[in-house]
Amino acid sequence: MDILSIAKARYSTKKFDPSKRISAEQLTELETLFQLSPSSVNIQPWHVLVASTPAAKAKVAEATQGDFAFNESKILNCSDVFVICVKEDLGADYLEKIGNQEQTDGRYATADIRQLISKARAYFVGKNTVSEEKQLSWATHQAYLALGNLLLGAKAMGIDSVPIEGFDTGILSEVLDLDAKKLRPVVLVALGYAAADDFNAALPKSRLALAEIFTPIE
């Protein structure tokens, strides 16, 4: 299947089949898809908690009560849930960790090149972390790049998914002790296989026309 066909086939799953599970090998592939996603200056400001057991998914589902109750069954019935968070600490130690990994992976031909790249990265990180609000916004933008990669890649593997923003971040942070981990939850992704009676699977995809989205610059 070509990439355009995969994009056309992908949709937001509204009802999962609780009897169908993603294999351990497929879960690792999904994690690797996320890992390989692009981010500004390779900052990778994300961390993902994975809920695969009924008990773990029930913890995540605690954040889908009240106004978000419509999302509870998706969390409980899917195979696995990715809790995508962004890091609060993007300081010097974290930047050094990235540089060390790049060094190990062979991205620096010389020490001078590493110093140059590290200096440039620190500059752009500094510009985007002048306030807590700006850092959260910037980091979230990077996480959503990875989210798109995950959603399209999952469909290419024959796995259904739905991104979920409808949850209580405060409850989730408390249940998963995210404050202590210096993580902020930004979006959930339920992954698995659609139920046979998932109404959204049969509906045609609807998007604005290309002419409404794209304008040539003259």
Explained architecture:
By secondary structure, the protein is α+β, with helices and mostly antiparallel strands. It is built from 10 helices and 4 strands; from the N terminus they run ααβααβαααβαβαα. The chain has helices at 3-9, 24-35, 54-61, 72-77, 92-104, 111-127, 132-156, 169-175, 199-202, 210-213, and strands at 46-51, 80-87, 160-164, 183-192. The protein has a 4-stranded antiparallel β-sheet, sandwiched between helices. Helix 5 runs antiparallel to helix 6. It is 47% helix and 13% strand.
Features:
single chain, 218 residues, alpha+beta, four-stranded antiparallel beta sheet, 47% helix
> What is the number of E strands?
4
Q: What number is the mean pLDDT?
A: 98
- Outline, from the CA principal axes? globular
Rounded to the nearest angstrom, the radius of gyration is 19 Å
- Written as H for each helix and E for each strand, in order along the chain, the element string is HHEHHEHHHEHEHH
Helix-strand category: alpha+beta
Helix share bin: 40-55%
Strand content: 5-15%
In spatial order, strands of the major sheet run 1-2-4-3
Could you describe the largest sheet, including whether it forms a barrel? 4 strands, antiparallel
Distance between the termini: 35 Å
- List unreliable stretches of 5+ residues: none
The tally of helices reads 10
Write the layout of secondary structure elements.
Layout: H1 3-9, H2 24-35, E1 46-51, H3 54-61, H4 72-77, E2 80-87, H5 92-104, H6 111-127, H7 132-156, E3 160-164, H8 169-175, E4 183-192, H9 199-202, H10 210-213
